[in-house]
Each structure stands twice: as C-alpha cells, then as structure tokens.
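Dear support,

I submitted the protein below through the web form. The confirmation email said the job was done, but the results page showed an empty box. After a refresh the structure appeared. I'm attaching both so you can tell me whether what I see now is the final result or a partial one.
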Amino acid sequence: MPLRDAVALVAAVLAPFAVALALVPVRDGMTHTNVALVLVVAVVAVSALGNRYAGALAALSAAVWFDFFHTLPYESLHIEGRGDIETAVLLLVVGLAVSQLAARARMLRVVALTDAGHLERLHETARFARFAASPDDVVEQVRRELVEVLELRACRFERGSLLGHPARLEQDGSVTVPQWVWDLDRQGWPEGEIELRATLGGSYQGRYMMTPTAGAGVPPLEARLVAVTLAAQAAAALGEPSPVSSRH
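What the results page shows now:
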C-alpha cells in the first residue's frame, strides 16, 4: 500500500475523533447541524489526502464519534432523540457522498497532471529529434526517457536481426509472452528483459531491451503507450527501414 494511502486510513479514524473531541467543550453552544458540518470538513480533508476507501471510513468514523460525543446520552453509542438520529444518518450519507466526490477530484487531477507530463515528454523528444546531430543521439535520448517513464532498472538498444523470443511490449500497451496469455495488471512485469520494437509505418528499425526494476509496479497504460510512441520517434530518426518486418 502506498504510504499516502496508509496515512489516509489512519487519519480516517483519528481525524474525525480528534475534531469531535475538540468540539466537546463548546457542544452546548453549537447546534448538532453545525457540529456535523465541521465533521464533514474533516471527511473531505481525509478524502483529498487518500482514496475513496479512506473517505468512506472517515465518514463512518465521523458518524460514530458524533453519536458518542454529541448526542444524549453522552459517551454512549445509544441515541435517544429522533432529530439526533436523523442528523447522524445524514452526516454518514453526506460524508460518504462528499468523500467519493473528493477522491474522484483527486484522481482526475492526478490523471490531468500525468497526461500533461506525458505530452510534454513527447513534445520535448520530438523537438530534440529535429535538432539532433545524429540518429544515435535520438536513440539515446529515447532510451533515457523510457527509463524514466517506465521506471526501468536498465534499458539498451539493439539493431539488426531479432534474436530470441523475449516478452514484448506491444503497440497497444499490452505485454505478450511466447505461447502464453499474460495478464499484465494481475501478474506484473514478466521476468527478464522485455522487448519494445522501434517501428514506424510497419517497418522495423531496432528494439529496446528493457529491464524492469525489481518489485516495482507496472506503469499505467498511458505511460506504456507513451513508451511505444517514444520508440516510434527513435525509428523515425533512424532513417530508411530495414527489411525485417515488425510482424516477424
């Protein structure tokens, strides 16, 4: 579990508790509606920090601690007043809804930033290729970009004929293994080097042999498609196509 999500889960339990406890000295001067609104703010904060599961846990925690500290009888999970029951239920429902919206907003923001970063990477590589002194410089630039975008331990470029039958990163971002249906999301990267062919218009120019970092997760589909596009930029820089077909 990522550290940020782990911290969010702890905060989902502790933050509503801390807020509800801090409001105890002033509970006689606050309406239950205002207390509930303050607790919803805590739920939103947790949701923005973590994921939707942390947000849902925070909503449940907020409802429980609202009941425990701010409804009669105090310091008990029993509720006597009908209005208090309605407020607790509404706090839970609103907290759940807001937590999901906050988590989705965070996800969309991450996707937008990631997409912007990928576009900038492709743009910079294309600009580098226009002014590069030689195709080999472009090949090396793409190699460095692949290491970053796929979080690789190592990467090298091979020209010439295709030797062996390594796992291959395909044009659609999937990974194929000879005589095997490979579930990348479930199984992670296959062992050993992974081939990414530098092709353009169906013509093969060479291939990048990539070694994933041990224990690292598989980059998202967007990153893998960026890697495929980067390899195509290297193929374009290498000039005339070789007679070896990319469908070999």
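Response: this is the final, complete result; the empty box was a page-load delay. The radius of gyration is 27 Å.
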